[in-house]
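User: Sequence recovery, please. Input:
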C-alpha cells in the first residue's frame, strides 16, 4: 500500500493533541462515511484512509513509532511507552462511540438516528444492554440481464455474475474485532465481491420481465438482513430468433420445392414445437402468423409469433433431387437463351 502521511489525511499539524485528533477524525468521518455518499467507492476509500490515520495517531505507542520511523514505522524497533503510560488501545467500538457522541450528543449519532430511528438507539448504545454496532437491512440492488432469445425459449438455467457488497467475513459485519477496527473491511462492515447466480428461466419469460431475487442484494450492516436483487430481463436477438415490436419472429428455411408446391415445416416457438403450413408459391421473406405462440403478454395470455421464410437448399440432397434440380436449371437456361 502506498505510504500516507496520516497528519495530512486528518489535516493536522504534527504536534496536534489527542483531543484535536479525535475532533478531526469525527468531522472527516462524518463527511466521508459511505452511507452519506450512496456507497461510492471514492468515499469508501477516503473513509478507510481516515480510519487508518485515526487508529495510528490516537494510539501513543503507534504514533511515537510513526513519528520516529515515518513510512517504515510498522517495521521499526519496538517502542516502549514512558513509565506510567500504558498507551491507548486501537480504535475500537468504545472509541467510535466516544468520537461520535453516543448517548444523545450531536454528530454521528444524530445522523444515524435520523436514518434508522429507534433501531439505531437499540443497537448502537443508547439504551440498556447497549451494543457497539448497528444493524439494518442491506440495500437492494438493481440490474439488467441480457438473455439470448434461444436461451429464453429453450428454458433451463442461465448463469450470470454481478458486483455487490457482502458482510465482512472477518467481523461478521460489525466493523470491529474487539477491541480493534476490523483489518479486512477497516470498519465498514462489508466487502465488495462478485456474486454468481444460476437463474431458472421462468415460464412467463418476456422482454422487460422484472424478477425479485430475495437475499441477493447487499449485505446488511452488523449482521442485518441482506437486501434483494431486482433483475430486469432483456431478451436479445440471435441467429434463429428476433423480436419485432415485442413479437417473436422465427427464422425458418424452406427448400425450393416446398416453397413452390406448399408443404409443412416444424419450428420451435416460445410455447414449444409447432407445424407450420407453407402455402404454395411462397417466396423468401414471406411472413406467416402463428397465433398465441409468442411470449407471455403479462396478463395470462400470449402474444402472436411469426415465421419468416428463407428459401434454401438442404445441406444433403438425394441423387434424384440433384437430377431434378439440374434439369430445372437446364430448362431455365434454355428458356433464357430463347428470349
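Assistant: Recovered sequence (339 residues):
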Amino acid at each position: 500500500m502506498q505510504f500516507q502521511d496520516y497528519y495530512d489525511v486528518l489535516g493536522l499539524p504534527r504536534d496536534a493533541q489527542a483531543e484535536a485528533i479525535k475532533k478531526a477524525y469525527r468531522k472527516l468521518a462524518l463527511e466521508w462515511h459511505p452511507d452519506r455518499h450512496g456507497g461510492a467507492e471514492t468515499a469508501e476509500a477516503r473513509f478507510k484512509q481516515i480510519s487508518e490515520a485515526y487508529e495510528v495517531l490516537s494510539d501513543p505507542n503507534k504514533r511515537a513509532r510513526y513519528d520516529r520511523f515515518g513510512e517504515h514505522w510498522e517495521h521499526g524497533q519496538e517502542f516502549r511507552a514512558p513509565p506510567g503510560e500504558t498507551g491507548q488501545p486501537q480504535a475500537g467500538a468504545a472509541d467510535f462511540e466516544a468520537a461520535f457522541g453516543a448517548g444523545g450528543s450531536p454528530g454521528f449519532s444524530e445522523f444515524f438516528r435520523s436514518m434508522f430511528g429507534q433501531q439505531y438507539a437499540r443497537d448502537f448504545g443508547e439504551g440498556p444492554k447497549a451494543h457497539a454496532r448497528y444493524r439494518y437491512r442491506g440495500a437492494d440492488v438493481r440490474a439488467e440481464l441480457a438473455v439470448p432469445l434461444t436461451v429464453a425459449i429453450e428454458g433451463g438455467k442461465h448463469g450470470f455474475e454481478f458486483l455487490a457488497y457482502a458482510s465482512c467475513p472477518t467481523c461478521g459485519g460489525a466493523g470491529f474485532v474487539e477491541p480493534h477496527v476490523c483489518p479486512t473491511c477497516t470498519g465498514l462492515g462489508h466487502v465488495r465481491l462478485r456474486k454468481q447466480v444460476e437463474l431458472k428461466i421462468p415460464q412467463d419469460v418476456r422482454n422487460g420481465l422484472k424478477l425479485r431475487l430475495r437475499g441477493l442484494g447487499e449485505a446488511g450492516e452488523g449482521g442485518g438482513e441482506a437486501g434483494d436483487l431486482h433483475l430486469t430481463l432483456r431478451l436479445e436477438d440471435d441467429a434463429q430468433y428476433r423480436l419485432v415490436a415485442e413479437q417473436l419472429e422465427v427464422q425458418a428455411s424452406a427448400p425450393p420445392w416446398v416453397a413452390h408446391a406448399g408443404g409443412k415445416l416444424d419450428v420451435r416457438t416460445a410455447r414449444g414445437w409447432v407445424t407450420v403450413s407453407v402455402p404454395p408459391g411462397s417466396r423468401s421473406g414471406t411472413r406467416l402468423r402463428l397465433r398465441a405462440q409468442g411470449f407471455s403478454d403479462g396478463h395470462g395470455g400470449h402474444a402472436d409469433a411469426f415465421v419468416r421464410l428463407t428459401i434454401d437448399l438442404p445441406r444433403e440432397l438425394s441423387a434424384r433431387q440433384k437430377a431434378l434440380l439440374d434439369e430445372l436449371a437446364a430448362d431455365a437456361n434454355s428458356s433464357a437463351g430463347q428470349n
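Residues 6-123 form a domain with the Helix Hairpins fold (CATH 1.10.287.110).
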